[in-house]
Fold:
Amino acid sequence: MGFGIFAVAQSIFVVIYSRYVLGMPINGSIMGAIVLMVLLALVAVVVGAVVSVFANNEFQVVQFIPIIVIPQIFFSGLIPVDTLPLHLDKLAFLTPVYYACSGLELVMVRGGSFTDILPYCGALVAFIVVLFLLNVQLLRKYISI
Structure:
């Protein structure tokens, strides 16, 4: 719960700081950008909770980071997804970063409204729910609660 609260606060701070201090243009709804960032932060917290079930200590959690984070960089839009070889672009739909980055691009670059990003928000909420339920099941199995 503490990590979730911190992640939400940090996400809101980053969007507001980027817009008003750094002067980064947000052509669409700033509220949409905040919602997307908050949802992505909550997905990250839930992914961390799922990974922590399998780790015995903090060092093992750090070893999971390259396995989970680095592949998502390829699907974030940093490299255009449609140029990935061997139909790897289809894997983008299995990563939450794809939906967050696509939604942020829609809001910040193309001037999309809050209603335009609802499908992306829905996908991120679905990731949160599925990963939370997975975490509960894993905790029951590995740490008898």
Notes: The radius of gyration is 16 Å. DSSP finds five helices and no strands in the chain. The mean pLDDT is 88.
